Amino acid sequence: MESIEQINYIKTPIETVYNALVTESGLSEIWTKKLKVKPEIDFVNEFDFDEGYTTKFKIIELIENNKIVWECVVSDEEWIGTKVSFELTEKDSITTVSLKHYHWRERTDYYRWCSYNWAMFLNRLKSYCEK
After folding, report:
1. Is the CB of residue 16 less than 8 Å from the CB of residue 130?
2. How distant, in Å, are the alpha carbons of 55, 58, 102, 105 from that of 80?
3. CA-CA distances (angstroms) from residue 59 to 36, 49, 81, 117?
4. How deeply is 122 buried, as exposed, middle or buried, from its count of CB atoms within 10 A (0-12, 13-18, 19+)?
5. How far apart are the C-alpha atoms of 114 and 36, rounded to whole Å?
6. Max alpha carbon distance in the chain (Å)?
């Protein structure tokens, strides 16, 4: 199994980053404007990227200001069954975000392209939270 792993450092309190990752107002600025999101275990977040289908992630772990884990239940075939986690820590007023997209069946060109896009996601998260 393959795993994409990215990290970023954001000069803002951990609460700001956590809220950006679990709310419609935050994720609509970072990922897509077309979404349905609720910070509840077992809720299925929906993200529409105008690709002919809606990507759906079930929330399987949610620890306030610490960890978020999604499991992909509907999306591109390569994403279904994968998991995305965001682990947050704060030190000296800087929040570290460790993103992992794991349980990929193989390393494909789509996997590599997604790795790039997760890095861009973290860059947008940083810009959004620091403004």
Report:
1. no
2. 9, 11, 11, 10
3. 12, 19, 13, 21
4. buried
5. 21
6. 43
Q: Tokens 């896009």 sit at which residue?
A: 117
Burial of 96: CB neighbours in 10 Å, binned 0-12, 13-18, 19+: middle
Which pLDDT tens digit goes with each residue over 75-114?
999 999 999 999 999 999 999 999 999 999 999 999 999 9
Q: Round to whole Å and give the CA distance between 121 and 17.
A: 13
**pLDDT single digits (tens) 54-67:** 999 999 999 999 99
Q: What is the spatial distance between Cα 44 and Cα 54, in angstroms, rounded to a whole number?
A: 11
Structure tokens at 89: 């820590």
- pLDDT, residue 67, reads 98
Phi, then psi, of 26 in degrees rounded to 5:
-75, -55
What the chain holds in terms of domains, given with CATH numbers, is 2-130 (3.30.530.20)
